[in-house]
Amino acid sequence: MTHKIILDTDPGIDDAMAIFFAFQSPDIEVLGLTTVFGNVPVDMAAQNALRLVELAGKDIPVTKGVAMPWVGPESTYAHFVHGNNGFGDIDVAPVKSQLDPRSSAQFIVDMARQYPGEITLVAIGPLGNLALALRLEPELPKLVKGVSIMGGAAFVRGNVTPLAEANIWNDAHAAEIVFAADWDLTMFGLDVTNAVPFKPEFVDILAEKNAKLGSFVQASAQFYMDFYSQNREDRVCFFHDAFPIAHLRHPELFALTEGHVRVGTGPLDRGQTAVAPKGTTPSPLWTEANTIKVATKVDHARLEQLFIDTYAL
């Protein structure tokens, strides 16, 4: 079975790893990359996405999306995690191709209308493009197959505040809109992605298996590993953004919990994805909230082998 996806992204080192994973997957058809601010400003995200498409030798549309949070000032970005150019400050080639002229939100709507019921929206950055697409086309939840999000922290600490994960925190009001929409939404947050550290040898193997794409991930990930290895005895890396794509291909690797979700937008709970598992509370404040699925466990060894095997294709 082939999964049609639109990959909404803010590249980003782990975004690059996830995008290449999707490109290499024989059962994933990437209809386009829609870009958003997040790890880097949106102009850089768009250029970085074009760069990744060119490096992979693909011919798919890349669009530029929202540059600001739904509410509040411009983001401060995560250059301390991803480097000044989003790719760990490695040398990157100039971009030769052009962006699709449509906005990311319009592209999402256009593709959903063209392939009704066939597309999974895979969002691995802040959720402004999906929120805007819902405003452009209120019937969007009926037009897509589902939504898979890398973001949030249901039952664990956040990584920006004690409550919030970065993608949701960056655009909490957009996330509130997206999580409240009536579609089949699965969240891959820090509950599962932070539970799977990758050793430095992992990216070495990717480079060995795929000299072009794997070597790019290997080189760019050194900066990323420097960040993640602070205050640790071992050197590690995390590839959060590839998880929702892995789930589309092999859902049996993951354990999911279904629950009612609320997204915080206040000064203290901004970006919190609070989840009440179904049947755990009678309060209408929760039982009337939208229901989502949350990934809580994954088979680490099989997931890592899936990444390696796919890069080797």
Task: For the structure shown, list the relevant keywords.
9 strands, 18% strand, 313 residues, 39% helix, single chain, 9-stranded mixed sheet, alpha/beta
Q: Helical element count?
A: 14
- Contiguous low-pLDDT stretches (5 residues minimum) are none
Q: Hey, roughly how much beta strand do the residues contain?
A: 15-25%
Given helix and strand content, the structural type is alpha/beta
Largest sheet, order of strands side by side?
3-2-1-4-5-6-9-7-8
Radius of gyration from the CA trace?
18 Å
Instruction: Write down the overall mean pLDDT.
Output: 97
Give the SSE order as H and E letters.
Answer: EHEHEHHEHHEHHEHHHHEEHEH
End-to-end Cα distance, whole Å, is 18 Å
General form: globular
Short summary of the structure?
The chain is an alpha/beta fold and 313 residues long.
Structural notes for this entry:
The chain has 313 residues and is α/β, with parallel strands linked by helices. 39% of the residues lie in helices and 18% in strands. It contains 14 helices and nine strands. Helix 1 (13-24) links the parallel strand 1 and strand 2. Helix 4 (104-114) crosses helix 5.
Q: How would the blueprint of this fold be written?
A:
Blueprint: E1 3-9, H1 13-24, E2 28-35, H2 42-56, E3 62-64, H3 79-82, H4 104-114, E4 119-123, H5 128-136, H6 140-143, E5 146-150, H7 166-170, H8 172-180, E6 185-188, H9 190-193, H10 200-209, H11 213-228, H12 243-249, E7 254-263, E8 273-277, H13 284-287, E9 291-298, H14 300-311
Parallel strand pairs: 1-2, 1-4, 2-3, 4-5, 5-6, 6-9
Antiparallel strand pairs: 7-8, 7-9
Helix pairs in contact: 1-11, 4-5, 5-8, 10-11, 10-14
